[in-house]
Design goal:
six-stranded antiparallel β-sheet; about 140 residues; alpha+beta
């Protein structure tokens, strides 16, 4: 599988006040701000980056799911305010995605533009940062 978005880890790590860790039992690299997770990059059974899960505004989350085939309700997260994005090429792994995670009945056909995915990452960070106490938030933003 080829990761179509190899820059994801670098972008998430570069956001203000971000800490990350790897949760081996889940296969997730978690990205947090103020101790609260806003993003995770999930590995598949082969150790490849497979999914990007992002905090999202519920309305924006629904719109992205309706428009882009790579985007679906957050994997192992609250579905209304988290989205997951398939990072790999559509091909051999697509059956794995539809069988285990994505609603195979979805009719979304669009490809997520790289600029929009970058913006989704930044927005996920901002959404979680604004929930922090003012003293922490002011230091970050």
């Amino acid at each position: 599988m080829t990761n179509r978005f190899p820059w994801v880890h670098a972008l998430l790590a570069s956001l203000p006040g971000v800490e990350s860790d790897f949760k081996p039992e889940w296969g997730w690299t978690r990205y947090k701000v103020g101790g609260k997770m806003f993003a995770a990059v999930c590995k598949n059974e082969r150790g490849e980056d497979f999914l990007l899960t992002l905090k999202a505004d519920p309305v924006e989350a629904e719109l992205a799911r309706a428009a882009f085939w790579r985007v679906f309700p957050g994997y192992y997260c609250t579905k209304h305010c988290w989205n997951s994005v398939y990072l790999g090429d559509p091909g051999a792994d697509w059956a794995e995605v539809t069988a285990a995670i994505r609603d195979a009945d979805s009719d979304a056909t669009g490809e997520v533009p790289e600029g929009l995915l970058r913006e989704m990452c930044v927005r996920a960070h901002a959404l979680m940062a604004k929930t922090l106490p003012k003293r922490l938030r002011d230091a970050l933003l």
